[in-house]
């Protein structure tokens, strides 16, 4: 009897989840919070979400995890776990004290390179640590060419029709007015040089995580231009990038010397690795 009751309860719970997702026009259940933030409506945080906020407060730094930008690796170092892909608006709503008083940062990646990495991630069904969400597996099944993927993203009527890896970077980093709301933004190419700016991050700590084999490196001029057009707002973020040379070279030389014996693999951003 108890087993039957448990099964019935789980079925009711799943039905409720699916109904909420359909009513709110989302595929990912986690997007319900983002939807409610969009609508300025209250939605209580689950216990797990409250625990993640507590972890961030304990670390003393807010990292906005933009997908395909080495976020899993940095989250593991700072928080001991991988953080969800929440927008800065989510934190402004549910943890305004964190946004206001703590340093916050994110990584920026060239949109064309990021799109190619995302395309390979989808074709592979995910990476070494993260699988493509089941809700998108069937939806993306027919997107077997780069042109089809570009057309799909270009034709999406809602950001919530896209898996996180295909969403523009500015969606995660800007406030309701479209203004940059993260205090520090770094180019992914400078990932080995950002540690002096970030509390709790040290030289040589960032390792390759959630990698997949890259096999899409070439694209036509027309394809490149289309991607540039789709993600044009991401390029406007470049003016906000914090220059890693803000600190003198002697600082990096001193700290690199101390960490040469580290056994941790250094992160090497390249087209051969999908983040």
From TrEMBL:
Under Pfam families, the record lists:
Sulfotransfer_2
Give me the Gene Ontology terms describing cellular component: membrane
Looking up InterPro entries in the UniProt record yields: P-loop_NTPase (IPR027417), Sulfotransferase (IPR005331)
Signal peptide feature range? none
A GO molecular-function descriptor: sulfotransferase activity
Gene3D superfamilies under this entry?
A: P-loop containing nucleotide triphosphate hydrolases
Name of this protein: Sulfotransferase family protein
Annotated organism of origin: Acetobacter persici
Its lineage reads:
Bacteria, Pseudomonadati, Pseudomonadota, Alphaproteobacteria, Acetobacterales
């Amino acid at each position: 009897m108890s087993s039957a009751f448990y099964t019935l309860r789980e079925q009711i719970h799943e039905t409720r989840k699916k109904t909420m997702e359909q009513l709110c026009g989302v595929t990912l259940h986690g997007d319900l919070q983002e939807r409610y933030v969009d609508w300025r409506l209250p939605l209580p945080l689950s216990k797990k979400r409250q625990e993640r906020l507590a972890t961030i407060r304990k670390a003393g730094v807010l990292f906005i995890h933009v997908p395909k930008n080495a976020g899993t690796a940095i989250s593991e170092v700072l928080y001991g776990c991988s953080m969800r892909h929440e927008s800065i608006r989510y934190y402004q709503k549910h943890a305004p004290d964190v946004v206001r008083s703590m340093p916050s940062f994110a990584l920026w990646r060239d949109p064309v390179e990021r799109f190619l990495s995302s395309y390979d991630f989808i074709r592979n069904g995910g990476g070494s640590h993260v699988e493509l969400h089941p809700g998108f597996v069937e939806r993306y099944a027919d997107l077997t060419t780069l042109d089809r993927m570009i057309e799909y993203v270009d034709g999406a009527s809602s950001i919530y029709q896209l898996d996180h890896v295909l969403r523009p970077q500015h969606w995660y980093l800007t406030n309701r007015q479209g203004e940059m709301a993260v205090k520090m933004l770094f180019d992914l190419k400078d990932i080995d040089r950002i540690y002096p700016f970030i509390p709790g991050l040290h030289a040589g700590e960032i390792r390759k995580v959630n990698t997949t084999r890259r096999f899409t490196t070439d694209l036509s001029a027309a394809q490149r231009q289309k991607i540039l057009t789709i993600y044009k707002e991401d390029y406007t973020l470049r003016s906000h990038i914090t220059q890693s040379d803000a600190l003198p070279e002697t600082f990096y030389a001193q700290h690199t010397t101390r960490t040469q014996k580290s056994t941790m693999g250094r992160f090497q951003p390249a087209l051969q690795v999908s983040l």
